[in-house]
């Protein structure tokens, strides 16, 4: 019992346990990296095919505006006295 107490008090055991934990974690990390799937898609510099995105969005907004103006043109004018009862 005294020997174990002396070993714990000297700090040698803590260093050894810490080294074993470090080694176990390191080996786990190496094994994980080895088993990780390899990336099969190559990445190249550039826009990634998004060069037309801005012009497509602008055209979509133009179309929405045209459709809104068209639908507004079908609404009757509120200047007619018939519609005064709703004001």
Explain what the structure shows.
This protein is mainly alpha-helical and 87 residues long. It has a domain at 6-35. The chain is built from three helices and no strands. It has helices at 2-10, 12-35, 53-73. The radius of gyration is 37 Å and the shape is elongated.
Outline:
The protein is mainly alpha-helical.
Sequence-ordered SSE layout with sheet pairings:
Elements: H1 2-10, H2 12-35, H3 53-73
Distance between the termini: 98 Å
The share of residues in extended strands comes to: under 5%
Q: Give the helices and strands as they follow along the chain.
A: HHH
Number of helices: 3
- Average pLDDT confidence is 80
Helix content: 55-70%
Low-confidence stretches: none
Question: What labels would you give this structure?
Answer:
87 residues; 62% helix; elongated; mainly alpha; 0% strand
């Amino acid at each position: 019992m005294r020997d174990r107490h002396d070993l714990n008090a000297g700090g040698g055991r803590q260093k050894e346990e810490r080294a074993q934990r470090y080694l176990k974690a390191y080996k786990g990390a190496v094994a994980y990296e080895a088993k990780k799937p390899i990336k099969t898609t190559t990445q190249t510099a550039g826009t990634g095919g998004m060069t037309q995105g801005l012009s497509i969005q602008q055209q979509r907004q133009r179309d929405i505006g045209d459709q809104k103006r068209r639908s507004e043109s079908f609404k009757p004018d509120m200047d007619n006295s018939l519609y005064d009862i709703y004001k």
